[in-house]
From TrEMBL:
HAMAP family reported in the protein's UniProt record: Glycerol_kin
PROSITE patterns (UniProt xref): FGGY_KINASES_2
Protein name: Glycerol kinase
InterPro entries: ATPase_NBD, Carb_kinase_FGGY, Carb_kinase_FGGY_CS, FGGY_C, FGGY_N, Glycerol_kin
UniProt pathway annotation: Polyol metabolism; glycerol degradation via glycerol kinase pathway; sn-glycerol 3-phosphate from glycerol: step 1/1
SUPFAM superfamilies the UniProt entry points to: Actin-like ATPase domain (SSF53067)
Gene this protein is translated from: glpK
């Protein structure tokens, strides 16, 4: 069997996908499985890690079957994942001590406000590049260790979770680490995922002792941090395991960094926006960690073996695809494809603005207590206006971030590369070009998150020779250029800030 391919496990917020790519970066096989979302209390979001692992095995098997391949034809496996989602598990049994706390989960908002009251925001941002928020893994890990029910253990072992974590009996990780552990038996994460925990110093490239002490997270439970594309490999799959083959696991990237890599944004100033459950706008800032004065995050973009780390500025928007799903949930649409027809059935929103702050507001506002809001409705408001307002909100949130990005970096983005499920919507892509006054480039392969992790793994094992080979694979499906006058775009955007103000600081306990 001379034909070989690279596989990518894309473990996302709503489901798990496995894709097989050939040397041209084209999809040879694909499988997907949704997993259950748990909402134990308002603002809480959980996943079952065991369900995620079971689904991962199922989609890998199905994806290989879809491609008509044997496992031995996979030259390497890459992993990409919902980044800040956090779990703690028993090192020996592999069983989680609690459901994973999803990146959207807001249960630790009070803890974040304590940090703000203690004037620790700049201290944390200086080390991690992150805006202290319930979004990140630090307060999630702290909550699990404080609140999960201790396991029933043999008498000679400590039952307290803190004691067990201190002794290394419990392991902590984001979903990439959970999958690497289950695939290889090794406890490893990559630099991009480590940089999203709020426990990792992105300047010193190490777990930060002061932050570990602040959040009560013992270093013994943390994974080893490796490059995103690792020639030394994270390990191999078990030949006696579900695949029946020993495949190198050689690359991992948090989903948004994976999309940046898959869009071949390898140079300083290259930018992309991924429209998934949320939207994540990243700009490569090269080997410099650019500090933001406008509510953006400084994060690690990627690292290849033996090379310096590359940084990015990021604008994290919590609800874009989630806003479309909400329209389905309340029966305003039957499926996402309907949004374009409904939105284009009216010339405007008639002054209606929808702020999709269902789990708070991310960049550049950072308000964990903001909540979803619709303003400007009249008796003449129809569902078409609300659907259009939802799509416009996606565009406005991106403009918020684009303006902050330009102010921080001093670089004007002339073309924004886009990917994710929502970019199949031509109406939204055109609307985005109109609102942010930038050309929008949609690639032929829009599953760039999976592609990026495949590239990272493939580079590590020599499947692809260099970055130039990957650049040659990137092809534009369609470009969208601004069509409406700038005055019209500015008028549409002009009251967005007013609507955001009405959504802020809403979720207050009585």
């Amino acid at each position: 069997m001379t034909d070989t391919y690279v596989g990518a496990i894309d473990q996302g917020t709503t489901g798990t996908r496995f894709m097989v790519f050939d040397r041209d970066g084209q999809v040879a096989g694909n499988a997907y499985e949704k997993h259950e979302q748990f909402y134990p209390e308002p603002g809480w979001v959980e996943h079952d890690p065991l369900e995620i692992w079971a689904n991962t095995k199922a989609v890998v098997t199905a994806g290989l079957a879809d491609a008509g391949l044997e496992a031995e034809q996979v030259a390497a496996l890459g992993i990409t994942n919902q980044r800040e989602t956090t779990l703690v598990w028993d090192k020996d049994t592999g069983k989680p001590v609690h459901n994973a706390l999803v990146w959207q989960d807001r249960r630790t908002t009070d803890r974040v406000e304590e940090l703000q009251d203690e004037d620790k925001v700049e201290w944390i941002r200086g080390k991690t590049g992150l805006e202290p928020d319930a979004y990140f893994s630090a307060t999630k890990t702290e909550w699990i260790l404080d609140n999960a029910e201790p396991l029933k253990l043999q008498s000679h072992r400590a039952s307290d979770l803190h004691d067990r974590a201190e002794s290394g009996e419990l392991l902590m990780g984001t979903i990439d680490a959970w999958l690497i552990y289950n695939l290889t038996g090794n406890h490893i994460t990559d630099v991009t995922n480590a940089s999203r925990t709020m426990l990792y110093n992105v300047h010193e490239m190490a777990w930060d002792g002061d932050l570990l002490a602040e959040f009560g997270v013992p270093e013994a439970m943390l994974p080893e941090v490796r490059p995103s594309s690792d020639e030394n490999l994270y390990g191999h799959t078990d030949p006696d395991g579900f695949l029946g083959a020993e495949i190198p696991v050689a690359g991992a990237l948090g989903d948004q960094q994976a999309a940046l890599f898959g869009q071949t944004c390898f140079e300083e100033g290259d930018a992309k926006n991924t429209y998934g459950t949320g939207s994540f706008y990243l700009m490569n800032t090269g080997t410099e960690a650019v500090e933001s004065d406008h509510g953006l995050l400084t994060t690690i973009a990627f690292q290849r073996s033996g090379e310096p780390v590359r940084y990015a500025l990021e604008g994290s928007i919590f609800a874009t695809g989630a806003a479309i799903e909400w329209l389905e949930d309340v029966d305003l649409i039957n499926n996402a494809a309907q949004t374009a027809d409904l939105a284009s059935a009216v010339d405007s929103t008639d002054g209606v603005y929808l702020v999709p702050a269902f789990t708070g507001l991310g960049a550049p506002h950072w308000d964990g207590r903001a909540r979803g809001t619709i303003v400007g409705m009249t008796r003449g408001t129809r569902k078409e206006h609300i659907v259009r307002a939802t799509l416009e909100a996606i565009a406005y949130q991106t403009r918020d971030v684009a303006e902050a990005m330009e102010a921080d970096s001093g670089i004007e983005t002339t073309t924004l590369r886009v990917d994710g499920g929502a970019v199949k919507n031509d109406f939204l892509c055109q609307l985005q070009a109109d609102v942010i006054r930038t050309d929008i480039a949609r690639p032929e392969v829009d599953e760039t998150t999976a592609l990026g992790s495949a590239y990272a793994a493939g580079l590590a094992v020599g499947y692809w020779a260099d970055l130039d080979e990957l650049r040659e694979n990137w092809r534009v499906d369609r470009e969208f250029t601004p069509e409406i006058p700038v005055e019209d775009a500015d008028r549409m955007y002009s009251r967005w800030d007013d609507a955001v103000e009405r959504a802020r600081d809403w979720a207050r306990e009585e």
